[in-house]
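User: I'm putting together notes for a lab meeting next week and I want to include a structural view of one of the chains we've been expressing. I don't have a solved structure, so I'd like a prediction I can at least talk through. The sequence is below, exactly as it appears in our construct file.
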Amino acid sequence: MSGKVIDLRSDTVTKPSPAMRRAMAEAEVGDDVYLEDPTVNRLQARAAEIFRREAGLFVPSGSMGNLACIMAQASRGQEVICEAAGHIYNYEMASMSALGGVLPRVIPATDGILSWDAIAPAIREKSYARSQTALVALENTHNMAGGTVYPTRVAHEICDRAHDAGLRVHLDGARVFNAAAYLGENVAPMTAKFDSIQFCFSKGLGAPVGSMIVGSRDFIERCRVIRKMLGGGMRQAGVLAAAALVALEDGPKRLHVDHENAQRLAQGLAQIPRIAVRPEKVQTNIVIYDISGTGLTSNQFLQRLTERKVLGGAVDARRVRMVTHLDVDRSDIERALKIIGEVVGAGF
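Assistant: Thanks for the context. Below is the predicted structure for the 348-residue chain, given as structure tokens.
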């Protein structure tokens, strides 16, 4: 048996490449709280250039980036409309309420993709007795819907109609470069109508740490204050920004490989008895499948895989999530499928 662990828990588990390690070792640094780290400044400027925005802000995590954007655009006691399975609602420790003082108003959507027709009825009527809607937050790609992608026309319609209603729109674009790769589009026109965008370097792009907010110059300055309030002011952060610069330039070019591997994983899983998956729903690098037919819970199933050096994550008691990334190749996918088949008794 190969000694390699095939880690499909997330695309956050990747190790920095040799190019990233060299860049980190050689990074020119300064104190970023004083705005004096040249590598951080270069990263922020490059991200803003790619998204055709006025400015960018490097933050330690996507969760902090999302929270800063929410706090900069919604006042305490207001509401943020988001999808019911969305990351900002389910996986960010209720920070928008606990720290930001705003209330999520959740709407379930097929495949995690909201439409204006679904959003419009959730907007609060003007009343001093009700919390008022301030912001709409979309997630692209949508993590817990299996990496699904917003068609750009749908996202643009939501932005246009929300603006007409006096609302702002935030994009949790943690994996927005995966969405762009799937659509064959450029991230700048895809995201042009959003008021704020957060994206991650530490997911599909392969950097060890960090996320970015982009937007107008005034907006970014508001977020800089909030970042400091949340404890996200960093000092000689250029050692991290250097790896993120490599990820930003090189990472998007190879995301199609992860998508192809995810599709192969889904197609292979569909051939294993007692596993339910719809390969046609797999658009990017996330595969979610149902193992309830095996008679095992997700945790039991994953424990058996772990014993065979294949790692995944539980969505709930019956669903498992696996994510492809730059540290797994096609041979790893084939081996993972073989082991999964053996674990559920398919014997192929």
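A couple of points you could mention at the meeting. The mean pLDDT is 96. The CA atoms of residues 168 and 276 lie 39 Å apart.

User: Perfect, that's what I needed.
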